[in-house]
Amino acid sequence: MVDVGRLQTTGERPALQRRSREKRDRLVKAGFRVFARDGYEDARISDIARESGISIGAFYHRFGDKKGFFYVLLSEYTVRGMANWNTFFTKADPNWTVEELFERLVDASAKAISKNAGFFTAFLSQGRKDKAIAEPIRQLDAHSARLLMDHLQQRDDTGADNLDIEKVHFAMNSMEKVLVMSSVLQETKYKPRNPETICQLARMMQSYLDIK
pLDDT class for 102, splitting at 50, 70, 90? Predict the structure, then answer.
């Protein structure tokens, strides 16, 4: 399992006081909104500062520049994502059929990706230029893959004993890439929250992993 505490550090200055942490959280929330709305290239520090109610000077003092701030958002998304997957598998009903498990798993991914569709557009545009930007998401995929593999083996579903982590990681990564692309493409009927999309991706994962 990936240790959340071992995520690559950013250049962000630490927020030690309560008031400082509150300002930092307001900037992060505003940042997600602005990047989601405007994409990376068109997102402006002045817009983030205005939406957060924090001065531009305070932004630069804490985060340095737009790229550094975007990496903070990626790290933030990754930490939250890991926590959400921990909760998902902790609360997973052992009485779900294997089909229900995969459908609920895909639906959980679809909800998170749909909520952050614009942010992923910015992520994709920057990921093509800087491969290191993809590292937090890679760690999130690895974390969720390990949780899924452990959960399937604990359920003792047919085929679970034959799983290996690379295969499970590929299945999770492929499913999430389809959801991300369907969230950013305008002309496609396979939107992330479409029940048909969720059902098809769930069946594809189950078939690929050969779980019955």
Answer: very high
